[in-house]
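Entry:
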Amino acid sequence: MEIPPKSPDGSEKSPQSKELLTSNTASTLCISSRSESIWTSVPRSKWNIYHKPIIVMCVGAAIFVFGMVITSLSCFIEQKKEVFKMCGPAFLSLGLMLLVCGLVWIPIIRKKQKQRQKSQFLQSLKSFFFNR
């Protein structure tokens, strides 16, 4: 096991710390972050906020309808009846699961938006009173 050399004055740093100092960690973190930046308060459109749950709900509804069609085909078509009876309920359940996930996702986003507005308001109040 290697022990990195230490200097008494702290001028020599380990290779990891040199790497961290030379990289633009803060800018890289802000760019790669999936959450909204606190520093930019650009208003977002409704589509930008809700597009992912809407897409999940649409895909779920399409898979659910496909499952209904396949399940109903098992009643009318005698050939490959076992395949239709196995695949139909699988698509039904998958579609219903995606549809419900999208429906549950929307109130979660709304709650996060309200919390974000409250935290921005509190931060502005704090900066107003402490920066006097």
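The radius of gyration is 27 Å.
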